[in-house]
Structures
1.
Amino acid sequence: MSAIPDLESLHARGAAQQPSYPDRAAVDTAVQKLRTMPPLVFAGECDDLTEKIAAVTRGEAFLLQGGDCAETFAGVTADNVRNKLRVLLQMAVVLTYAASVPVVKVGRLAGQYAKPRSSDNETRVVDGQSITLPAYRGDAVNGYEFNEASRIPDPQRLVDVYNSSAATLNLVRAFVTGGYADLRQVHTWNTDFVRSSPAGQRYETMAGEIERALTFMHAIGADPDEFRRVDFHSSHEALVLEYEHAMTRIDSRTDAPYDVSGHFVWIGERTRQLDGAHVELLSRIRNPIGVKLGPTTSADDAIALAAKLNPDNTPGRLTFITRFGAGKIRDGLPDLVEKVTAAGLHVAWVCDPMHGNTFEASSGYKTRKFEDVIDELQGFFDVHRSLGTWPGGIHIELTGDDVTECVGGGEELAEMDLGNRYESVCDPRLNRVQSLETAFLVAEMLRDA
Ligand SMILES: O=C[C@H](O)[C@H](O)COP(=O)(O)O
Ligand SMILES: C=C(OP(=O)(O)O)C(=O)O
Ligand SMILES: [Mn+2]
């Protein structure tokens, strides 16, 4: 771990997936502004999360990481943030109670505003005319609206990312410490549309059991503070170098650099080049970090990434988030896990069952089948069980709302339903019922792990 490399030297590595800003002076102004802003998270909180992920690495805890594919500035509302938090709290309770395993809770929120894209451009037919514009790269970079002005990268948006993340995190902190996350509220999280679904009813039964257990604890005089609040951490993909670099600061306690834009940051599948800018920057910070590993990852790639990103082999520092796809995980994952384990590397293994299972429906919507998501999760658990390693967690794109973006699940959403309420500006998310169903299914897998 050494000093922070300068931004120019990072760009000199030919950083992938960066915005092409037309006005460098405006970029400098935004970066200067960000450098003066206070940290969004404290280094000590990042260390706490590293400790918790170390328990995952040892097979003593399970990581639940979830949230939008892409947050939007317009989505920073009390309802939206609360709904997301609520579904994550419900999932965490299901996993903790049904599998008797401590759950480390990490939101894909308060910073998840920048998107890598498979194409630099997007073509749409507007009024019978085919129009090609720069791709939307997340609210951190440009506007979703399909017109030329909106798609121009604007560096002032990076300052907006900071402000939106601050507002989100402030609300999340208030919710998780101010009574909303109190375990005695388990029933009240199960409101509105979710309550009548089979998963909601199953949750209701479980919440009743938890409530009786809490009443019993209270009666015998045990009422620990842990029942009233939860530890919740933020995370996002560290993508736009200007932003992550400006938010990287030297911690006064340890003299070490931390990226104080979020507790946990990860490197995406498209930016994990060993000699690339993202790996370089994240190798220097001391946060807990993740790397997405797709089906083309060789065991040597993973081992080299671990050597660069976690040379001291510190447990909890490095999480490998595999995203192979349901059809590939059973063949592809064993070699990776086996060789990384044989090399003595301490990593947390987490399954992202979303990004290897995306396809385009005939209506043009990007979607995923709930059954593929569950199949990949089952494959992940099967592989780890057969190798004797710990399936450390799940990384899910989800929302607390009743959207129609992924097909299947108990509600049997069909492709023709997608248009009813498709709100994601990037990838399709599990809705609240599908998320809760996933938690129950994963709890069963976890019980057998
Ligand atoms: O999560 C997001 C990536 O940006 C996404 O999977 C790539 O999507 P695209 O192929 O639509 O660019
Ligand atoms: C872009 C993403 O994933 P990946 O890097 O795995 O494709 C994502 O998590 O939204
Ligand atoms: Mn995504």
2.
Amino acid sequence: MKIIADENMPYVDALFGYLGKIEYVNGRTLTPKQVEDADVLLVRSVTKVNAALINNAHKLKFVGSATIGTDHVDVEYLSTRNIYFTNAPGCNATAVGEYAFIAMLELAQRFGESLAGKVVGIVGAGNTGTAAAKCMQAYGLKVLLCDPIKALQGDTREFVSLDTIIEQADIISLHVPITKEGEHKTWYLFDEARLNKLKPNTWLLNCCRGEVIDNRALVKFKQQRDDVKLVLDVWEGEPNPMAELVALAEFATPHIAGYSLEGKARGTFMLYQKWCELLDFPVKKSLESLLPAFQFNQIVSQGDLTEGQLLKLSRLVYDLRDDDFNFRVCFSTATGFDLMRKNHTYRREYSAISLTQSVDYLSAGSINPSMLNALGFN
Ligand SMILES: NC(=O)c1ccc[n+]([C@@H]2O[C@H](COP(=O)([O-])OP(=O)(O)OC[C@H]3O[C@@H](n4cnc5c(N)ncnc54)[C@H](O)[C@@H]3O)[C@@H](O)[C@H]2O)c1
Ligand SMILES: O=C(O)[C@H](O)[C@H](O)COP(=O)(O)O
């Protein structure tokens, strides 16, 4: 069996190696010729899987995308060809949630503010939005959720309108899929008119898809409204984001909010599980056995933990400043965006750290251990 896999997908050898011959490819430049004799195609979000790519791949029976988003796949076409398709819903939700939370801690520190006490509006309360909300709520922040689709589906959480979020939230974090049609379409959800409604000093984070914000309008808006702070992980026109916008963002990264080792491993693992299920093979491997122990896997706390110390602790698993710095150096070269993603050093999730507290830990005013556990620490 021939398995074609994106070179940026970890653990393919460990999970699929015994099933066939694996060939690694650059997902962005993959050609029809390269997939012609594939039985299995494993991709990430940069590969457009459509008739143009797989028309001549007559043996192809399985396409797996180790991602949450599916906007790069023509799912209808795959179904007309009877090719099984699966993605990996939720695989990197924790990574995205922690990225958003850590970015907020970073903004607070950079601008001499306290994150505690702020109201956060989450737009899109699915896997990543819920993971982000979990961190915010663990830290005691008031969270407003906007998800008209979930509300209609009977989700029992409390939801508010997007207008309410814009009016009331100090921080807005976007977690919707990109959709171009329908009542709830998200393409340019934040257009010029909506951006102009943002209240003073709003922090706006986009970790979902670049086109959810009209990037040109955002440049114009931010040039006039520097009180608004931006954290942008995704961009219109990837892998070539607008240079003006990168310069205006407080934190800028190349679509790596979901790039924790756990998140990427989970993505590949979910495809492996689906493939085994389909062939009625036993699942012989476990996700835990793939992950190495983290360098700082145990932390002993000697006392109070302030917001600044929580940020320092968070930087052990993920230092956003490094990615922001490296991105600004490399994004404008022809391959900079993709190379940074390819060579990205895997960060870990909070769960990679176990906390042990010394007896005097629980003093007044400290961030207590149950809060850290709720954030995701072990
Ligand atoms: N930056 C990254 O690395 C990264 C990682 C993972 C996912 N993503 C992107 O984030 C998107 C969301 O991921 P997820 O796992 O949370 O998906 P999900 O499907 O679990 O949740 C998305 C939610 O958005 C809601 N929604 C849709 N249209 C909306 C609208 N107009 N207003 C408010 N809510 C709306 C849906 O009802 C759903 O609950 C993915 O589709 C993907 O494009 C990016
Ligand atoms: O949809 C997703 O899951 C993310 O956008 C994904 O993690 C992006 O990473 P890529 O697949 O491009 O490596």
